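Minutes, methods subgroup
Present: GH (chair), OT, SY

1. OT presented the first of two proteins processed in the latest run. Sequence and structure tokens recorded below as shown on screen.
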Amino acid sequence: MTQAGTHRRLVVLGSVNMDLIVRTGHLPEPGETVQGRDFVTLPGGKGANQARAAARAGGRVSFVGAVGTDEFGPMLAATLATQGVSIDRLGRVPGPSGIAVITVDDNAENSIVVVPGANGQMRLAEADAALIREAAMLLLQLEIPLPIVLAGATAAAEAGVPVLLNPSPVYPLPPELLGRVTILVLNQGEAAVLGEAALAKIPHVITTLGASGARYRGPDGSTSDVPAPPVVAVDTTGAGDAFTGALAVAWVQGLDPLRAARRACAAGALATTYPGASAPPDPAAG
């Protein structure tokens, strides 16, 4: 990456949700009712989480997505803007914004139900594609319709813009999308769903390992493990998004993959020490 490239924007094409978070002693089994202790409402969505994480890590970030016409829409837009993310390409569509209902237990594990809302109605306008073609990197997830993900990846790939995909929520992906991805960031469960044949199509694969850190596999097939700093976890929600946003910024700043992964592991670990998908400024920024 050239020095000039470090001043170009990251573009995040993805979801923005309002997270409705309940804390309880243990996650309920099917059919079980458990007593909750606390309830909070926090901005989330994998796309927005990654955009905010990238901004915290010192990146210049533009977000492409959609909110609804409900009371959550302006709140979600304002949160992105106040955390340094450009919302010039954040659309507003009739109906509810996306939401996620999140249950967190005493072991900091979680279960999540996502209702797409406006995320399921978004479209990729020509102005969005033009922004992507001028980006330093495009970040994608799978909480928006696959045709939009593919259109964004295609616009980026045709312009020589690297594409980072976090395949969550995971499902089998078409070869035309995999062929446009430069960097794949996923956890072990997601890797198992996609399979080795799919992963082999991607030049750079980074598998997150929770408290153990991450594993990087490069274009030559060699792997390296990157440890995470020890922390006392409060809530693992959003840790993967913090990891991904920090990784993207480090990558476009010109850090080699292992150094970028170390910075990402620190950001992901820090995110577990606070509730929800928000976190304080990344100490690795700057």
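2. SY then presented the second protein from the same run.
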Amino acid sequence: MDSVNLLQSIIVLEVSSNLKEANMVVTERMFERFLKRSPVSVMVRAMLENVFSPQRLDKLFAQNSKKQRLSRLLFSTVVDSMSLVVCKIRPSLHAVYQAKKKEFGVSVKSLYNKVNGVEPMVSEALVRETADDLRKIVQACGAMRKPLVPGYRTLIVDGNHFPGVEHRIEELRTIRAGALPGHAIAVLDAQTQLVVDVVACEDGHAQERRLLPQLVERMVPRDVVVADRNFCTTGFLFGLTTRKAFFVIRQHRSTLTWQLTGRRRRVGKCGKDVIYEQIVKLTDPRQGETMYARRITIKLHQPTRDGDSELHVLTNLPKTITASRVADVYGKRWSIESAFGELATVLNSEIETLGHPPAAVLAFCIALVAYNQLSVVKAALRAVHGEKTVDRQVSSYYLADEIAGTWRGLTIAVDDATWTHRFAGATASQMARFLIRAAKLVELSAFQKHPRGPKKPPPKKTSGKKQKHVSVARILEQRKRAA
């Protein structure tokens, strides 16, 4: 009897082992099929497992949260859920809950309470700490861009005020004015094209300048901050200098005590614009301190939209960095505005249904993380297809659309264990090798940009003022008769 039981056990083990091996073979085949058909989606899923593992996110939460505590609903689950909404894979947080109700193990009210209570410093840390690992992957891909200022780290900063949200909070239901849930200052590394830091504020009416002291504290020696004139304040400029950092910031006449010294010299051209340079003395009346900076004047070939014919840029960079280079660096400031544009159109960074400021900040920061993942995908593509080709041809919109369209099927076909086994412990070099392998499979024509020409002013509507509606078919028929 014992020998019979032993034989049955052996048979069961062999069958189980064969089934396990068969499942592994099927999973591997599905993985390779998705890699071949949708390499971009596989690249992003691999990065999620490597850089954004649940264990790491929960540890990050524990280290940075002061009020919220670890609970049954983990921070990693919240980030995963919000990511599906930000990347337009699911239409809302409630839709995510309905699709994964068993996995949450808590009520939908508990989910919203958790999201509404995430502290801004946790959301900021999510961007800052994951960007550092993604930078290592970009570097390992050999896809770092040439530095704008050799020997320095160039950081482009700008603020983004979140638009009004729906009036779902009880106190907002009787108020007509737009409900602003907050704003943030993002810091873009020009060499990696990653958002490496963010300073968030829950007060939607607060000015960007209120956040500048926090921003200064995060600068290190040989950082070069590039910004528009809203950042041109005495405290910010002197604060950067104290930290042995540098600035390339457009002058704001009313926020500084300044005095021109010496004569203005023409020093060259930047395209069709003429460049001048002059020394300016800056004074901090509160501290009684002074410093000298360079004032780079860019005489524009064409005026700005505001009608300005000259731009005045202040910098404390040494004279070895020419005025023309400073003017060119300031001209790259548009790249962060382009990033904000992608967050608004490509990703769902501003969720109208999330009215609580902490939830709005979290959504924005998760969108920055998603933007960084797309930047790493582009870095791998640059390493394979060339920087100019990718910059000229590849659209972030179509990359994000590919990911959103493939994601649900990918998560069903390839189980979590496969991703963990392949990528959880991979080094930056190993990740770079895989991403480059995947980038070779990408057909760039599927993600082709279609840049628009300059917008034309809409024609005036002169006919049909008294009509409520017209027939399109009849109007088109009139066109045919006229032709």
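Chair's summary of item 2: The beta strands are 153-161, 183-189, 194-201, 223-227, 246-250, 257-270, 273-284, 289-299, 310-315.
Next meeting: continue with the remaining queue.
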